[in-house]
Amino acid sequence: VYSYSDTLTEVRRVNSADNIYTLHGDSWVQVLGSLKHVMVGPAGIWGVNNNNIYKLVGGSWQQVTGLLKQIDAGGDMFIAGVNIKDDVYCLSRPATVSAKGASDLPWVNIVGKLKYYSCGVGGCWGVNSADDIYFRFDVSPDPCAGSRWEQVPGKLSMIEVGTEGEIDLKSPLYRYKGRCSVGGLSWSSVPKRILLLCRLSRF
To answer: Which UniProt keywords apply (predicted)?
Structure first.
């Protein structure tokens, strides 16, 4: 799993042993901690391990309240993710920015079921257990819940909203042609090693 942020100029990854690495130049350097999923974005550096949620604060991982199996930090300084029951949650900007330690966080439950939920400048997208694709309307940093879902044609096992970058995966990747919102034309396969699952365009 790779996570890249233009804002923070950071690239992080975790391996099958849950070790965390950061990219320095052309080399991966292991850093302290153990995570199953790590995300870098405008909201900072967050991760999950055994459903517990962690935020990187001052160079150390701090556990925060809540339980998620997947987390996303790509929104405009807000957090999103799903738990083991595929319940969807978000954390609005004020709570995201101030989150640290054992403070009780006001996670917002979003109606619906998804196995993966990803946000970016162009909006929030998700896929469910049947690999159906959904777009969430009217998401903002505060409040972060949005208003409604709309299904988008196609099937995907996961989705990330982000800018172009490179990854090394055996599975094919797909690009949504058009804006990063409902109303794009279709999904088309993209060349291997190009990570552009949803083109970012401001509305």
So the answer is: Lectin
Burial of 66 by CB count in 10 Å (0-12 exposed, 13-18 middle, 19+ buried)? buried
Whole-prediction pTM value?
0.74
Computed on alpha carbons and rounded to an integer, the radius of gyration of the chain in Å comes to 16
Q: What is the full DSSP assignment across 143-164?
A: S-S-SEEEEEEEE-S-------
Indicate which CATH number applies to the domain containing 85: 2.130.10.10
User: In which residue are the tokens 């949650």 written?
Assistant: 89
Count CB neighbours of 12 within 10 A.
23
123 lies in a domain? yes
> Residues near 154 by Cβ (< 8 Å), separated by ≥ 6?
133, 174, 186, 187
Residue with tokens 């309240």: 65
Structural element, H or E, at residue 53 = strand 52-57
pLDDT in tens, 138-193: 999 999 999 999 888 778 788 877 644 444 444 555 554 444 444 444 455 444 33
Structural domain tally of the chain? 1
Q: Which domain range does residue 41 map to?
A: 2-163
The string over 27-48, giving b where at least 16 C-beta atoms fall within 10 Å of a residue's C-beta and e elsewhere, is ebeeeebebbbbbbbbbbbbbb
